[in-house]
Specification:
Radius of gyration: 17 Å
Number of helices: 0
Oligomer: single chain
Structural class: mainly beta
Order of helices and strands: EEEEEEE
Largest sheet: 4 strands, antiparallel
Distance between the termini: 46 Å
Length: 108
């Protein structure tokens, strides 16, 4: 007797479930690393500085290192230099090139 188990394909697009600092946070230290927790395990090869970007108010790219910890499903963006103290917002951009282990692009 042969038992066959069919595992359905993963078609769920991953989402970011939390960030630190939170969206709209004020008085964030200029040396703070930014984190994003995904709702499922991501393909670590797709979590890079080219898929997660930090940009200043003029939309200029801020040099940063991006790492991913599969155990906690957390991407961490660390600016390469201490950020200048500014009163305007910096923005983090997630590009659709990052995907989960099933190859599904994350929801932006």
């Amino acid at each position: 007797m042969v038992f066959l188990t069919i595992i359905p394909a993963d078609t769920t697009r991953p989402t970011v479930t939390s960030t630190s600092p939170i969206d709209g946070a004020a008085d964030v230290s200029v040396g703070t690393a930014l984190t994003a927790v995904f709702g499922e395990v991501m393909d670590a090869a797709t979590i890079t500085a080219s898929t997660i970007e930090l940009r200043d108010p003029a939309s200029a790219l801020v040099a940063a290192t991006v790492t991913y910890d599969a155990g906690s499903q957390t991407a961490t963006l660390t600016p390469n230099a201490v950020l200048a103290a500014v009163t305007t917002q910096l923005r983090v951009y997630f590009k659709v090139d990052d995907s989960d282990d099933g190859g599904n692009d994350h929801v932006c």
